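Practice problem 4.
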């Protein structure tokens, strides 16, 4: 059995090395090797952890920019595995790496989103990891996470950040994701979807342009069945064009 396990791990290391030849173009908006790495499945857990934590050189010679692409891809693939053994490394990368690696680690953590992760990401909303924390919380389907993002959206004064927060709420509240979890979680999801929808309507009333478009997308993702009532309650004092825009979104949600 030990020999079989060792053989499987050696095969996984070899498969991970082959991914190096499938790295995407650096011209992509967000280049990542995650798709190729996800195909390796759970057997790639230890090879990816070793490459990220210790030394990526056994994977072969990498051109300029490729180590970043490979690291981001491995972090995203680890998130899809939702394996608790990866959490310590993901927390370290989130806390100490920069840019896309911090973002990818936050999203990976958010996919599992235990109590410790929720606390870390929520606290990070008040620090220099705020942008990555928003993306991580957007993957966390818990009411507490929706509360944290909704509160941040209510307080947001920067349009670009409000847009990111709105889309994070949309991902948290996505109706199809909750329905896929079964009847019990669907009922739980209604609370998250309502919390998100209320905050998104408030944000829509305050924002304009590109940011308002993001709120529209997020409201469509949440698709709360009570959106018409939420709009009627919160948009009563808005101008007619704004009320008309929100009513159109609510009608689209309730009739699809």
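Answer key:
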């Amino acid at each position: 059995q030990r020999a079989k396990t060792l053989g499987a791990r050696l095969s996984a290391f070899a498969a991970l090395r082959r991914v190096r030849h499938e790295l995407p173009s650096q011209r992509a908006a967000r280049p990542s090797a995650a798709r190729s790495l996800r195909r390796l499945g759970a057997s790639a857990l230890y090879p990816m952890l070793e490459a990220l934590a210790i030394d990526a050189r056994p994977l072969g010679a990498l051109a300029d920019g490729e180590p970043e692409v490979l690291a981001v891809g491995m972090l995203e693939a680890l998130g899809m595995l939702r394996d608790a053994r990866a959490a310590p490394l993901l927390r370290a990368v989130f806390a100490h790496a920069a840019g896309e690696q911090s973002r990818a680690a936050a999203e990976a953590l958010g996919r599992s989103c235990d109590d410790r992760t929720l606390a870390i990401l929520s606290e990070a909303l008040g620090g220099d990891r705020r942008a990555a924390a928003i993306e991580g919380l957007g993957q966390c389907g818990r009411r507490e996470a929706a509360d944290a993002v909704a509160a941040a959206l209510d307080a947001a004064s920067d349009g670009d950040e409000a847009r990111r927060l709105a889309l994070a709420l949309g991902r948290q509240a996505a109706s199809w994701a909750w329905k896929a979890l079964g009847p019990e979680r669907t009922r739980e999801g209604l609370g998250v979807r309502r919390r998100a929808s209320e905050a998104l309507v408030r944000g829509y009333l305050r924002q304009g342009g590109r940011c308002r478009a993001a709120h529209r997308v997020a409201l469509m993702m949440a698709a709360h069945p009570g959106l018409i009532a939420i709009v009627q309650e919160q948009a009563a004092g808005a101008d007619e064009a704004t009320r008309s825009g929100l009513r159109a979104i609510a009608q689209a949600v309730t009739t699809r």
